[in-house]
Specification:
The protein is an alpha+beta fold and 590 residues long. It has 16 helices and 23 strands.
């Protein structure tokens, strides 16, 4: 096949594939252009999850009439004059590809009037083909309307996620920019609903409340650090507020959102020895440094950067976060569950010999399960063969066990005919609750009405996710109803979990919920149940009476998959008689 030069239309669509990955990419580029234009008020309107309409209006300095046609040409920009400028970029945009790329895969209309002009101009671009400009009356600033995104690239539409997911990406993105630019008034409307509105007064904690809810925003710890040419500001979460992944760790460098694994690692290390293994902090940190100290010309999306003093930046982030933690972290609060230790099943009723854990022991709410303190287990094939359809190990029964006692208020010690068993009480109780819940799911799960509804406030993205899960929650015994923007009322909980804090149960349903395009049925219901059972199960560090230990052991023996919790973590460790004999040298050296 002979070599030939691609037509401009195809070349533009290829370039658009690097810049415009999804509707949120369009919003990102248009919002950044508005910020570069010194806008004080930015309004984002989205219909059809961005596939039908995306409109971004600002009150910035506008585009001069004679430059309007040039603004949609490829590699046309007002932010660079020479190659040397690439190493001291102080604006969000600089590549001159955004409008050209967006216009090549949509029907785009640009209306703009500079502040000093009396009339505005309008330009329409259809699939990369620009028409003639029109003279019209318009407010100062720029309005860019993008319609029928990817209409001429239908294959791209097939790769988009559900409308809910695309809306969530847009909401999260706009909220992040509102955090980075608190002096700018942001307004976001999606599906004819006002999703976000900020005052533009410069108060970042106000925007944090819109993103995470008022309660979490109140607890966030402010970071203020100045070290030579590196200034670090923002907020990090206390050790009592964590997530199961790193998705809520956000970095901005000179006002630009960036993704950098090393920066995230530096922040997580600041929490070393403070958080349970598998838990991560929330953070929104803003790094300010000279433009020539960071290279932003790494990727078309401008989400990756390189630092001139890489190690210095990473050390600065870790030091700033650690200092803020040590200065502001309060004594951890114990969640009030009504009693000192609240049980979620009547078989674990409070015993007569229950004792509180002595705070002097320094025990955390969860036992330390760091890799270096976890024993190395060798499982046979039957224990390793996970049935991914059910998410549990196949039926591997355990023998009848004789309880010996409790160790570190976290593990049960039991004797079997073939050796010693160490049982994680939290994981074991998770398994017991999960199987009881799943057994009730085949019928109507009984609910327990609350004497007073419990209110819970969620971040905007989580609130939208929860609204679509309400029918699923009703099947599981919850009664939840919206109560204003981002707020919900819990009127009933499953009877099996009647003792759990209802607000905590609702939060755990959506906390760190992984993106899943499968309809919320069957396996998704099981995932929700597993999350709630994790919250309801007894915790490590809770002293159990002899009767409670016995009841938990008997209930675990009766389950179908006693070897693991619903999340796949082992509930028990088996130390065989043969292994013990070898450890004590009874079988001789081998």
């Amino acid at each position: 096949m002979p070599i030939k030069i691609l037509p401009d239309e195809i070349a533009s669509q290829i370039a658009a594939g690097e810049v415009v990955e999804r509707p949120a990419s369009v919003v990102k580029e248009l919002v950044e252009n508005a910020l570069d234009a010194d806008a004080g008020h930015i309004t984002v309107l989205v219909e059809g999850a961005g596939k039908e309409v995306i409109e971004v209006a600002d009150d910035g300095h506008g585009i001069p009439p004679d430059e309007l046609p040039l603004s949609v040409a490829r590699h046309a920009t007002s932010k660079l004059n020479s190659a040397d400028d690439l190493f001291r970029i102080a604006t969000l945009g600089f590549r001159g590809e955004a409008l050209a790329s967006i216009g090549s895969v949509s029907r785009m209309t640009i209306t703009s009037r500079p502040r000093e002009a009396e009339m505005g101009r309008r330009l329409r671009v259809d699939g990369g083909k620009a028409g003639k400009t029109e003279l019209l009356g318009a407010p100062s600033g720029t309005v860019i309307r993008v319609e029928d995104l990817f209409y001429n690239v239908p294959a791209r539409l097939k790769f988009l996620k559900s409308d809910r997911t695309e809306r969530r990406h847009i909401t999260t993105l706009v909220t992040h920019y509102a955090l980075a630019y608190p002096h700018v008034r942001f307004q976001l409307r999606q599906a004819n609903r006002q999703v976000l509105q900020t005052s533009g007064k410069g108060d970042r904690r106000e925007v944090l409340a819109a993103l995470y809810g008022a309660e979490i925003a109140r607890q966030m710890i402010e970071v203020l650090s100045q070290d030579d040419d590196l200034e670090i500001t923002g907020f990090i979460s206390p050790i009592s507020v964590t997530r199961s992944n790193r998705s809520e760790i956000i970095f901005f460098v000179n006002g630009r959102p960036v993704q950098d694994i090393a920066l995230t690692t530096s922040l997580v290390k600041a929490y070393h020895t403070m958080l349970m293994v598998g838990r991560y902090p929330m953070a929104t940190l803003f790094l300010k440094m000279p433009p020539d100290a960071v290279d932003v010309n790494v990727h078309p999306t401008k989400a990756e950067v390189r630092f001139r003093d890489r190690e210095g930046v990473f050390r600065g982030v870790g030091r700033a976060a650690r200092q803020a933690l040590l200065a502001h972290t309060p004594v951890p609060e114990i969640e009030q569950l009504g009693e000192r230790l609240r049980w979620t099943d009547q078989s674990y009723a409070p015993g007569t010999d229950r004792r509180e854990v002595d705070p002097a022991w320094g025990m955390s709410a969860e036992a330390d399960r760091s890799p270096e303190r976890m024993p190395i287990l060798e499982l046979d094939e039957s224990e390793q063969a996970i049935d991914h359809r059910q998410g549990v190990l196949p039926e591997v029964m355990v023998p009848l066990l004789r309880l010996v006692g409790q160790v570190a208020a976290t593990y049960l010690v039991a004797e079997g005919p073939d050796g010693l068993y160490l049982i994680d009480q939290h994981a074991a109780h998770e398994r017991v609750l999960f199987e009881r819940f799943m057994a009730q799911r085949a019928q109507a799960i009984p609910s327990q009405q609350l004497m007073e509804p419990a209110s819970v406030e969620l971040p905007l993205a989580s609130a939208e996710l929860l609204e679509e899960q309400i029918p699923v929650l009703e099947k599981l015994g919850f009664q939840v109803e919206p109560f204003g923007r981002g707020a919900f009322l819990v009127r009933a909980v499953p009877a099996l979990l009647s003792e759990i804090n209802p607000a905590a149960a609702l939060r755990v349903v959506v906390e760190d919920f992984e993106e899943d395009e499968t309809p919320l049925q069957h396996e998704i219901e099981a995932k929700v149940i597993a999350r709630v059972c994790k919250r309801a199960a007894v915790k490590g560090g809770q002293v159990l009476s002899r009767e409670e230990q016995e009841a938990l052991l008997r209930d675990l023996e009766a389950t179908q998959a006693p070897r693991t919790c619903p999340h796949g973590r082992p509930t028990m460790i088996h130390l065989s008689v043969d292994l013990l004999a070898r450890q004590f040298g009874r079988l001789g050296a081998r």
